[in-house]
Amino acid sequence: MQWFSTFRSFIVAGVSYEVYQDCTSPIPCTNPVAGFVGSQTSGNCPFTVDFIDTSVTTGATSWLWTIYNGAGSPVISTVQKPTAIPFNYLGSFLVKLVVIDSCGSDSILVPDYITVSCTTSIGNLLIPDQFQVYPNPTSNYIYIAGENIENEEYIFSLRDIVGRELTAEKVDVKDNILLKRLDVAQLTSGIYMLSIES
Questions:
Q1: DSSP letters along 83-115, please?
Q2: Quick one: which of 120, 131, 123 has its CA closest to 196?
């Protein structure tokens, strides 16, 4: 209910009168309808997203955002328009908004709202000339190919930029030809070094 006053002024026989009247008038109360948009919904990592509240509300409003971005715990925000939310990891991520106003609450949950792709670059450090590595950069697999190479056991090691070994695989080469596929989809975007040893 909303309170308001009306005011009337009139003059009778030279005397001025003022009349006030307090009244009530109902304001219709409807439940809010939650809605939002993002400044972008897909891209190659890293990038940031600004979220815009498009909810329809009545009266005072509060917001509770839950934004997953692959960094472990979700980003939680209570501002109307969260900005510069980072997306640095490969995947598709859920966004949820709960809107509360004086008439009730509503929520919207959108699975896979933000889709992030990440490419991985493999440095050619310690790769003998008879080997080729492709595609570079990549986001899923790299292929190591070689012709006219010695028939022996080779060790392929993938290391991060500070030198930590992430994977190591042994491959026996026969018929002087090699074609090896390495899965790098689980790696975060960055630069990695591949070494091949015999």
A1: --EEE-SSEEEEEEEEEEETTEEEEEEEEEEEE
A2: 131
Look at the pTM and tell me if it is higher than 0.70.
Answer: no
pLDDT tens digits for range 104-151: 999 999 999 999 887 655 544 444 557 778 887 887 888 888 777 788
Residues 6+ apart with CB under 8 A from 195: 125, 126, 127, 156, 157, 159
Which tops the pLDDT comparison, 176 or 101?
101
Query: CA-CA distance, 46 to 117, in Å (whole number)?
Result: 9
Q: Could you give the CA distance from residue 111 to residue 92 in angstroms, rounded to a whole number?
A: 8
Encoded tokens for 129: 């000339």
* CB contact at 8 A, 79 and 63: yes
Q: Single out the residue of 156, 107, 101 nearest to residue 128, CA to CA.
A: 156
Among 32-36, 63-67, 85-89, 123-127, whose mean pLDDT is lowest? 123-127
- Rounded Cα distance between 3 and 17, Å, is 23
Alpha helices, DSSP H, located in the chain: none
